[in-house]
Structures are given as C-alpha cells and as structure tokens.
UniProtKB/TrEMBL annotation:
Pfam families: HTH_24, ROK. Signal peptide: none annotated. Belongs to the ROK (NagC/XylR) family. This is ROK family transcriptional regulator. Residues 1-27 are annotated as: Disordered. InterPro entries: ATPase_NBD (IPR043129), ROK (IPR000600), WH-like_DNA-bd_sf (IPR036388), WH_DNA-bd_sf (IPR036390). CDD domains: ASKHA_ATPase_ROK.
Length: 412
C-alpha cells in the first residue's frame, strides 16, 4: 500500500461503512484501510486493540501492521508494560507516510494546501482575484505545486498520493452573481479541469464540489467526536453544504447531494428565494460596496474582518440577521427529511463571526414552528476558513487509505 501504488475505487458513500474486518484471503487492501482508519480515529493502537475492534484474528492483525510499518505508514510507539505477559506496543500514523495536495477553486480566491498523513498543513498558498479563469487557475496550480515540491525531500516527493480539487460544479451558471464577464465564465463550460491538471502530474487528480469537500474536511480532520449524522453548511462567497450519514459523506449519484445553496428559504417580503441569495458572503460584499466601502479584504483577510474598522458594522449585523434566519429555515427543512443529530456551520470568516452567526441561527430556530420535528443541535465547524482546500486534500487520502469517508467524482 505504498503512496503511489494503492489501487483506486473507494466504496460508494451511500453504503453502510464496513466496521469489521474479514479473515478471508484476498481482503488485504480492505483490512489495511480499516486499520489505518481506526488508528486515525482513535490514535495509537496496539495489535490487541485492533483485533478486538475489528474481529480480525491476532495473526491477521500482526501481518497487516507489520506490512504497514514496512511501508512507512505506521510507526512504533513506546511499549506499554503491564504486570503480566509481553509489553503492548502501540502503533501510530507516520506523518511522513504520505502527502496530499488540496486545491480550492473559489469564485473570489484559490488556495493550494499540502498536508501530511496526519492532516497537518506543511505549506499553503492563496491567490485572490475578481473571478476565476481556467488558464490562470492552471498556471497557479503549476507554479504553486512546483514551489511546494521544491520544499520536499526526494523521499517525501515520492509519497505525494494525489491532488484533490474542490470547486463549484457548473461554475459558469453563477455568472450574474459572481459579477464576471459571461465569456470568461463560459470558458469553464467546455473545460475538464480535472483532466487538464491530470495531464501535468503523475499522481492521480480527483474532483468534488467545493462545499461537499468542506464537509469532507470536517468529517476527516474535524473534531466532531462521536457525531455520525449531520447536515453541514459552508458559508463562502456563496453558501453551500454537504450531508454526512453513518459517519460517511453522502454525495448522491451525481455528486450533488447536499446542494443546500439551492434550498428555498423565505426572502424579502416573505417571497421564496434560495439560501445562496441570502446567506452568502457575496451578499455582504455587495452591501458594503453599495456604501462605497472597499470589501476586497473579505477575501484576502478572512481572519481579520473585525480588525478592519467599524465601517462594516451595520452591514455585518444586518447580514448576520438575514443569513441566520435563512439558515434556520434550511436546517428545519433538512430535519423534516432526515433525522440529523446536528447541523454544522463553518465558513470563510473569523471564528468570532462564525460564533455570532451560529448563536443567531439558534435563536432564529426558536422563532419557527417546529411542531412534529426533532431539531438537530446547531454547532460551529472545527476546520475553519481553509475547509474547502483541506477537503480537496482529503479526497486522495480517503480514496487511497481509508474506509470510504468521502467519494471523489471523476468529472464535473
């Protein structure tokens, strides 16, 4: 299971996750994925722990963990000595075992991130723009990945397991909201960006909707504890989301499940509109621009909104009020279809603004008639502003080393 040799093809995200191993021959790949998934979720584990958790025989577990250690994916930890018998030797993920690159193509910015096998960020690059173009995006990726690889050793570079691309599907359909020239956005219609990028690199390239990828980042890298069923909202230039069922990302047959930005919600005057038209940061930018306030910092300095002066205060307050009311209706509507444990909200904004938004959503839900429904708890996401790029990086990680937490698509 070397970083460059594992076969592709993760299980479909709608299936029940495989929590048990099998001692039958020919199942090495599945069992190795299972062991790596458990160690990622639980931390360092001894062979006896793995055997107990999976139902695999002690001999099978011993063989698997020895192979994973030889391949550089697991590291021995200090022995734990008990009063009886041989000491227990926990095994942990090797940070140098594999590396993954994530690319977020957004409507106002692009990001590249390089992470190690533990999900720790090793390098990150950002490019802000008025609107994205295919050629500029490809050039950013070429130069950015070259810069990242220059900082790796030869052995580390060999262990790059893939590039995951997180971008809005049918980007060209948002031309009016994005404020971009139609001919520029139409250029995306006839481009297979995954194929264009695959032609540049020897490692595999995966593609998934950007908000769904952010949801995948929360699932793989976030701190959700035992949470296994949740609806997820990512508030970026446009609002979007994802769905997690049975601890796995559900993307649907076309990869568009959890297209929460298109969910109908009450708009001005009570008329129905889409969540994307109310809860998106582009709406806040438009309000600021209408008062002559330069709002480019919304995209270039997402951690520092509150440090950029009081001018945005009234518009920010109004946006939080209207966005929270729309999100509240979206959460209630989602709960009427699936009995989610929680609704998770994250976005391209400072943590303090995210906390205000979540609190406002909780209050707004209290003003809606929810009789007959069990409303999920509303909580903040734990990955933050880089969730979409991190979600892109999670695609090759999940596809090649885990029991299918995410299910990458091969095209738009």
């Amino acid at each position: 299971m070397e970083a460059g040799s594992l076969r592709h093809g993760s299980p479909d995200a709608a299936e029940t996750p495989q929590l048990r191993g099998t001692n039958q021959s020919g199942m090495r790949d599945q069992n190795e994925r299972l062991v790596l998934s458990l160690v990622r979720q639980s931390g360092a584990l001894a062979k006896s722990d793995i055997a107990r958790m999976t139902g695999l025989s002690a001999q099978t577990v011993s063989v698997i963990m020895r192979e994973l250690e030889v391949e550089g994916l697991l590291l021995r930890q200090e022995p734990i000595r008990g009063k009886i018998g041989q000491p227990s030797i926990p095994m942990a993920l090797n940070p140098e075992g594999a590396f993954f690159i994530g690319l977020k193509i957004g409507r106002r910015s692009a990001e590249l991130v390089l992470i190690d096998f533990l999900g720790r960020t090793r390098a990150m690059l950002q490019n802000s723009y008025g609107y994205p173009t295919p050629q500029d995006t490809i050039e950013f990726v070429k130069s950015g990945i070259a810069q990242m690889r220059a900082g790796l050793t030869r052995e580390q570079d060999k262990r790059i397991a893939g590039l995951g691309v997180a971008m809005p599907f049918e980007l060209w359909n948002w031309v009016d909201t994005a404020g971009a020239p139609r001919e520029i956005m139409d250029a995306w219609r006839n481009r297979d960006i995954r194929a264009d990028l695959q032609a540049l690199f020897s490692f595999p390239v995966y593609l998934q909707n950007d908000a769904t990828s952010a949801c995948g980042a929360e699932l793989v890298f976030g701190d959700m504890g035992a949470l296994r069923d949740f609806v997820y909202f990512y508030i970026g230039a446009f609002a979007g989301g994802g769905v997690v069922l049975n601890g796995r990302l559900y993307s649907g047959p076309t990869g568009n499940a959890g297209a929460l930005g298109s969910m109908p919600v009450p708009g001005p005057g009570g008329r129905p509109t889409q969540l994307i038209d109310v809860a998106s940061i582009a709406v806040l930018e438009k309000a600021l621009n209408a008062r002559g306030i330069e709002a480019a910092y919304l995209w270039t300095s997402p951690e520092e909104w509150q440090d950029l002066g009081p001018d945005m205060g009234p518009d920010l307050d109004n946006w939080i009020t209207t966005a929270s009311e729309a999100l509240a209706y979206a959460i209630v509507a989602s709960a009427s279809v699936i009995d989610f444990e929680s609704a998770v909200i994250d976005g391209w904004m400072p943590a303090s603004i995210r906390a205000r938004l979540v609190q406002a959503v909780q209050s707004a839900i209290g003003r809606i008639d929810v009789e007959g429904l069990r409303i999920p708890s509303v909580r903040e996401g734990t990955v933050g502003i880089h969730a979409r790029a991190m979600g892109g990086a999670s695609l090759p990680l999940s596809e090649r080393f885990l029991i299918g937490s995410t299910a990458p698509s091969r095209g738009v």
